[in-house]
Amino acid sequence: MSMENTNGVPVFSDGDVIRLEMHVGDDDGVSKVEARFRNESDRRVGSIYRSVELEDETDAIAVIELRVGEDLPPGDYVCEYVALTDKHGNQSLVTLPGIEFTVEGDLEDHAGPALLNWSFA
User: Fold this and answer.
1) Which residues of the chain are modeled with pLDDT < 50?
2) Buried-most residue among 16, 61, 97, 116 (CB within 10 A)?
3) In this structure, are residues 34 and 50 in contact, taking their beta carbons and an 8 Å threshold?
């Protein structure tokens, strides 16, 4: 991590590894943690999904790593949700948990074409 912006949001650059640690727990054991991050920048809109398999631990630290670069283009990111699944398949969904970060870097065009419209013919 290179620095924080004026709002206390971490700022990362090309080559950085973002390591997000989430303390999770369930009496029956947590088996999976999933998270989706949305890029809210004006030039690029996209999302990144990551999941971590746990060994039905009742109290654990789930670590999600994101590598800044080709798969994580510049922009302001917000976590859309964190989904937690226990060993019985029960799921908890935490929407907008307040996890945010910024990726700085080259805004050169690395994105593919956009779907501008569609219709049934």
Assistant:
1) none
2) 16
3) yes
